[in-house]
Amino acid sequence: MLISLEKINKQYTVGGEVVKALDNVSLGIEKGEFLAIVGPSGSGKSTLMNILGCLDIPTSGKYILDGITIEKAKENELSTIRNQKIGFIFQNFNLLTKLSAIENVELPLIYRGVKQGERRKVATESLEKVGLGERVHHLPTKLSGGQQQRVAIARALAGNPPILLADEPTGALDSKNSKAIMELLKELNKQGHTIVIITHDLEVANLAKRVVQIKDGKLANVKVGGKK
Fold this sequence. Notes:
The protein has 228 residues and is of the alpha/beta class.
């Protein structure tokens, strides 16, 4: 089991009132899965993504990621775990506009202390993997939205993390580019990458192999995706 969540609860205090964002959530994700977590705004899916991504820790419950007990980790340990175990893909791409595609992809490798020659080799291979081998030196402003998301996916792949965590990966794209990005994620999954996407769009979610719905902080209707 790559990811194991056991009875996860997350509470916030807002205006003196306790708000339960996640309510007794349990979920297992095997290596090589392609899972979609789908729910409307306010359902708890963003909170769940933050916990899965080690950006936050649960109020109670147990989270094990690739053999590491997350809720016991200190902040510097969580930073290392994020850098080594998780490739993040964001709705708004989060690319640095003054850096070329290849320089953006190299960033997580710089944080890992990878030498320049190896960084350039890995970044080039990652961009080729997502179909941007001929645009490695383009600035993000010279790329379409779909191409920018491909750069973001290449950046997530660069460190070869065990899991790719995608937050609304098609949210800023039109229907044509959305379909292309989902096809790319499906292909990466076939190559062995474990992928978890967070989305409000059930049509997008159904392109995954397994769909989990979240509502009012609780998981419901765990099912196999409708389209392979």
